[in-house]
Automatic annotation (TrEMBL):
GO molecular function: NADH dehydrogenase (quinone) (non-electrogenic) activity; NADH dehydrogenase (ubiquinone) activity; quinone binding
Sorted UniProt keywords: Cell membrane, Membrane, NAD, Quinone, Translocase, Transmembrane, Transmembrane helix, Transport
Protein name, entry field: NADH-quinone oxidoreductase subunit A
Entry annotated with the keyword Transmembrane: yes
Subunit note: NDH-1 is composed of 14 different subunits. Subunits NuoA, H, J, K, L, M, N constitute the membrane sector of the complex.
Amino acid sequence: MNLPESYIPILIQAGVAMAFVAVSLLGAHFLGPKQKKGNSVKNQSWECGIPVEGNARTPFSIKYFLTAVLFVLFDIEIVFFYPYAVNFREFGVEGFLAVLMFVAIFFMAFFYVWKRGALDWDK
């Protein structure tokens, strides 16, 4: 298999990344603390001396997660505007039309989310 020379640094970077992940996971498994099974006092939750109230596994409302996902989605949209803002003169009319289409798609997503009531906390 003949690879162009320009792919070699990419393969080296991918190999280093995979090796780092493997070493991190194995290191955490072998060097991390070992927990004993059972219901001892040491394994219970402790909140600064305050007695524990209820269960820590109570479910949260899906609205918290939905808000976080929507924030990340629309925050990433702003990140994609940066290359356009830096090079907007070089992109010309074609680049402007591409960005308008990008914005239109995100506005459609925003209005869909709005109409579905995801931004209404009263429901």
